[in-house]
Amino acid sequence: MKLTPSADELAYWLILHQDKVVQLGEEPGLLKCHWSALDFAAAYAGEIIKIGEYRQHNCYLLDLGSESPGSPRTELVGLRATLMTQSSDAYQLIARGWQLAHFLRTHRYCGQCGRSMHLVDWELAMLCHGCGHRCYPRISPCIITAIRKDKQILLAQGRHHKSGMFSTLAGFVESGESLEQAVHREVMEEAGIEVKNLRYFRSQPWPFPHQLMVGFLADYADGEIKVDGEEIIEAHWFSMDELPLIPPAFSISGQLIEATRQLIEG
Ligand SMILES: [Zn+2]
After folding, report:
1. How many CA atoms lie within 13 A of 167 on its CB side?
2. Domain enclosing residue 18, as ranges
3. 114 C-alpha to center of ligand 1: Å?
């Protein structure tokens, strides 16, 4: 629901410009200030969306879209760099706010009849008054899995990991597919092996732009590593004491690798 906060409300703010988070020279993340202190945002009164509560204050999203804040006080920080430093509560709010902003930016017109869409005020959805078509924020489930073989873990380097980072295997769930089927298919497609003994681990919203990563631990069953050469350019079994560059601990991939380490070192 869009609203205008009162000038003297002390709140937390997630302010977005394009794919950046607007900062006022403090720690990256949610800004704590009064609405009246956001002088550059006055034109957006009535465009504010509440995304939750944080430390006993309301937390609001303000999406400037392609408009620059135009204030010398502000800095812009990338979403990924911002999320890396957050507590899990703040992470969740920022991820949610970013996904909502992305949803609103990409659902301005009806996909069925082409008329303008409107944000409804009883739930988070965009509605076309012309044909009744309704859209909800998009969430794309992806599986991500750590595969253990004796005392080793399978890690792969994706084509897009320019830094040379090796990570756990991951991929989008396809229409009509269960999460478990997606794990077996992705692992076979990307690394050419079969896995068994899938155990649900945990999940993590990954707002780049709207994935829900569903983590599994798995054991090697059969086959030799054979990478697809498309998404994955290299994959190997690694011992825990000779890991390559891996994802940070805040990511579910980093957590899956740590969980596998604990299984191995048991
Ligand atoms: Zn329509």
Report:
1. 24
2. 2-106
3. 6
